[in-house]
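Notebook entry, structure prediction.
Reason for the run: the old model in the group folder had no record of what sequence produced it. Starting over properly, with the input documented here first.
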Amino acid sequence: MSLQIINSPIFRHSDLKLIGKKIVIKKTPFYYVNKSKKLSSFLKEFRTKKYSKINHDQKLFFQGSKNIYYKRSQIISRIILRKFKEKKIKILDYGCNNGSLLKELKKLNFKNLFGYDINSNYKKFFNKSKIKYLNKIKSNQNEFDLVIFSHSIAYTHNIKKLMKLIKKIVKKKGHILINLQNISKRPLNFLYGDQKYHFNKKMIKNYFGKIGKLQFINERCLNHEFIFIIRLGKNKIGSKKISYKEISKIKRMITNIKKINSNCFVYGENILGALCNKLINKKIIAIVSTKSKNKKFFGKRIVDLKNFQLKKSPLICLNDRSNLLIKKTYISKLIKV
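New structure, fully documented this time:
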């Protein structure tokens, strides 16, 4: 398949540090692949002590029906509680980081919990937790009822080898739960230079559908992401034709941001904020955020969403507004990219 070059500032996902000026993406029927030459050097960060100190479970997601915020680990653990009634099942969190998801599962009385990560510095977070941390995974070492990938599969070095291993360590009628970004709703994720794989829904069906039966889970507060469970076994699924609209979408978003010629606000201490900071820095009045612990984002002051009532200047936000809780009377105009 053809290679696509996206000319744009490229960022590291852990701290949104600028790491490049373009990214090369290969299109396949199963996933988009980051083919940039510097990718292997970026992936080395995941093994460092510095990386292990980052809390990747800080972001809060708004649950509108309950008017409350949840961490991703809380959302995923409650999905598992609904889907798996037996508390003694053997669960592996692959790419467990500091074990926040496993600790949430422990609170829900799941008993046989295991964590694996390529960064051995995470081991200290499991002391006295009664959760077993694995330094290595051998194909004949364990048989798991459930293996979890929560925002880890996009960073794996070789997805084909990984899934071959996972199929060996999961029981014949076991399950895999995967949570990852929906590139159709978050095309800005292409600009994370340290992510290797990206998926839209048809790609997921094409690739993971070969492994077993898929069940997609709708979670309102994570509606910009995919959550799906694979039940291992033979699954007849035909090849689905793919349209690669996400590439043109990200290029259009970059163009739209560059065209902004008025002073504005930007929603989010995220990759949108980082991109706007590089492309239209002098036009940004402030960053609008939710429950932020920071005072500034790349030198720009942060305005709390609940106090954001300025009407004169527009707000730049993502088009689907999945987590945007802004009363229409607060602003005169939304610039949706």
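Summary: The first helix runs from residue 39 to 43.
The old model has been moved to the deprecated folder.
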